[in-house]
Amino acid sequence: MLELTYSGENRIVSESINALGKIDYQNDENFKNKVLKRFSEIYNSGIENKNLLKNLSFAFGNYFDNKNLTLLTGLMRNDYYG
Fold it and tell me: Is the dihedral of CA 66, 36, 30, 22 positive or negative?
């Protein structure tokens, strides 16, 4: 699933993020760190696709880490949340 986040298609990336957010990987710290790194890369790439950003916000529920709090705060400031 993580590899699909490197697709050039926003819809595939968005759905991959959505799926990653629904799967509990809390016990695998190595994978969790890879996912958090990729989520940061996606956010910092400047993507403006609202559905993708929404899925990214919700996926952080399974991968939350204090060092990424600013990233989550930035996502929540998106006008998608009104």
Answer: positive
